[in-house]
Amino acid sequence: MLNFLQMVVNGIAAGSIYALMGLAMVIIYKTSEVPNFAQGEMALVCSYLAYMFLDQYGLPVYAVFPAVLVFAFLLGCLLEFAVLRRAKEPNVLGMIIITIGLEMILMGIVSWKFGAEQKTMPFPVSPYDSLVIGKLYISSLEAMMLCVTLVIMGILFVFLRFSKLGVAMKATQQNATAARLMGIRVRRILMGTWGISSVVGCTAGLLISTTLMQPYMMWDPLLKGFAAAVLGGMTSLPGAVVGAYLLGIIENLFGGYVSIEFKSTVAFAVIVLILCIKPSGLFARHYVKKV
User: Fold this and answer.
1) How far is CA 205 from CA 27, 71, 265, in A?
2) 289 belongs to a structural domain
3) What is the CATH number of the domain that holds 261?
4) Closest Cα partner for 228 from 172, 284, 180, 145?
């Protein structure tokens, strides 16, 4: 029983990173109905930028991380304005291919600039320090990841519910044409959405960088975050979070009781299963267009 509870705790800790990536993808998908597969590499660029300032220039963490989050927002806005908005006669498939192309370009830039060898992000919290809760163990870094995820969830809820920009984003998500007729600048809202999504993804990248840094480090979190979003519902922010924690728990239990070698395949199995049984996800409604 203790081993089971420990695996659940570890799954919740892992699910925090999946939740951030899932939230980042859902924020964009709700507005444009396009999954952004460059999300991971956008976070990758920001993480390596933070590493450069911390390691090479010796700047403090409390100054570097906020500055990198601002850069992440500007990067998201720039990619939407300079690339996505310029696509002629855009369709879903074409936009997906564009995001995949951006993913490969950003990864190539990081590999060219910093090399392929693993690096260590200077960070005041050690991944080897642990907190003991009864007979259960959780690392200080995992506890911080969980707290950061919960704080970001709260901020997003308040922002989307009560701020003017959040309400404008929800209106754009529901009906872009009607929002435009009501005076909402839809293109600016979409650009801001990419910026906010980039900040959320960057947060996940910075947390991951404290334990592992290499050009491919965001592939697995991106796929797990996408699986979590599919599981909870690609149009549901709470669904993406719940799906992320469910996925983290399921894959840890699978790795503990079945096979650690096939642990990473759980996310793909979840995607296939959910798309076959309930394409809209567990917490999103499925709409059928009548013609």
Assistant:
1) 17, 13, 22
2) no
3) 1.10.3470
4) 284
Residue 283 within a domain: no
> Do residues 232 and 282 make contact, with C-beta atoms less than 8 angstroms apart?
yes
Q: pTM for the whole thing?
A: 0.90
Q: Is residue 116 part of a domain?
A: yes
What is the residue type of 204? A
Tens digit of pLDDT for each residue in 22-53? Answer: 999 999 888 878 889 999 999 999 999 999 99
* In a domain? residue 87: yes
Q: CA distances (Å), 230 to each of 129, 145, 150, 157, in order?
A: 34, 22, 20, 20
Q: How far apart are alpha carbons 220 and 205 in whole angstroms?
A: 12
- Strands 130-133, 136-139: pairing kind: antiparallel
Q: 239 is in which domain, residue-wise? A: 2-277
Residue 245 tokens, joined: 């924690």
Per residue in 213-265, pLDDT tens? 899 999 989 999 998 998 888 888 888 899 999 998 988 888 888 877 777 78
